[in-house]
Amino acid sequence: MSANILDGKAIAAEVRAEIKAQVTERLEQDQLPPGLAVILVGENPASQVYVRNKKNACKEVGFADFAYDLPASTTQVDLLALIDELNENPEVHGILVQLPLPDHINPETVIERISPAKDVDGFHPYNVGRLATRMPKLAPCTPHGVMTMLAKTGIELRGLNAVVVGASNIVGVPMVLELLNARATVTICHSATKDLPAKVAEADLVVVGVGIPNMVKGDWIKPGAIVIDVGINRLDDGSLCGDVEFESAKARASWITPVPGGVGPMTIATLLQNTLAVAQAS
Ligand code: GUN
Questions:
Q1: In CA terms, which of 26, 77, 88, 151 is 20 to 30 Å from 1?
Q2: What's the 141 CA to ligand 1 centre distance in angstroms?
Q3: What are the tens digits of pLDDT across the range 112-135?
Q4: Integer Cα distance of 217 and 165 in angstroms
Q5: Domain 30-115 belongs in CATH node 3.40.50.10860
Q6: CA–CA separation, 102 and 114 (whole Å)
Q7: Architecture of the 141-264 domain
């Protein structure tokens, strides 16, 4: 078997076109464009790329983007003051603080300072709790983007054995909650999991977000499984690869996401969806 490609790039373009149409309608009705504030502290090169992609996506769909590129020396007090100001600004519907933050800033304190109503990353404990109690408001972008990609491809999740590899707050844990809400039977694996290959081999659907190049081997994949690779790793030769060995996994899977062009574009499309949803509700 050779898997079908889950084309996140194309599906994300569809989602962005839907968003752009709704922004045009808002502007025709003299409503504010959706506004997204993107805060970057320091000069992490990967974060700079992600933030640039987010700003470009905002421009493409007609959002107002409020960019704050702050020096690594920014104090936590100053960052919290900026968030307080953005929480009060009616032109700003979404606030995103790019992670990771420099060591002298506590990410939990920062995330909790963002108004849950403007928390378009879905990282505030209020929004995590809403997702965990099946009353989602703003859901984390990467897992929700994966759900959109699967839904738009017509893949039914109810009753599947799903295995999530990686237990981060950004990907693994909210991915589990999303899959549970879709009635999958979910296992979460992490660095203390015993016999990871055996766990992956039981999966009808496997989602991997660990940040280790080619960590999941193709011969672990159950024939016919759906493989979602959240990893984006840059190799020494400058090329990008995922957390799953792509070619050997593709030979066994029924569906697989490529890297790049799989989950990454869906994350950004979902960020735009979340920001639009806040604007439409305000
Ligand atoms: N760092 C890596 N992924 C993300 C994300 O989705 N949002 C934010 N704010 N930071 C990140």
A1: 151
A2: 9
A3: 999 999 999 999 999 999 999 999
A4: 13
A5: yes
A6: 18
A7: 3-Layer(aba) Sandwich (3.40)
Instruction: Catalytic residue, from 65, 98, 243, 273: name it.
Output: 98
Domain 30-115 identical in fold to domain 141-264 = yes
Instruction: Tell whether the model's pLDDT for residue 150 goes beyond 90.
Output: yes
54 classed as catalytic? yes
The active-site residue, picked from 65, 119, 121, 229, is: 121
The domain limits of the chain are: 30-115, 141-264
Query: Which two three-digit tokens encode residue 89?
Result: 């600004």
Q: Cα(160)–Cα(147) distance, rounded to whole angstroms?
A: 14
* 3-class state of residue 226 by DSSP: strand
- Residue 35 in tokens: 């506004």
Mean pLDDT of 75-98: 98
Q: Give the pLDDT score at 41.
A: 98
- Per-residue pLDDT of 12-25, as tens digits, reads 999 999 999 999 99
Judge if the beta carbon of residue 178 lies within 6 A of ligand 1: no
- The pair of three-digit structure tokens given for residue 199, joined into one six-digit string: 């766990």
Q: How many angstroms separate the alpha carbon of residue 160 from the centre of ligand 1?
A: 28
- Beta-bridge partner residues of 164: 188, 207
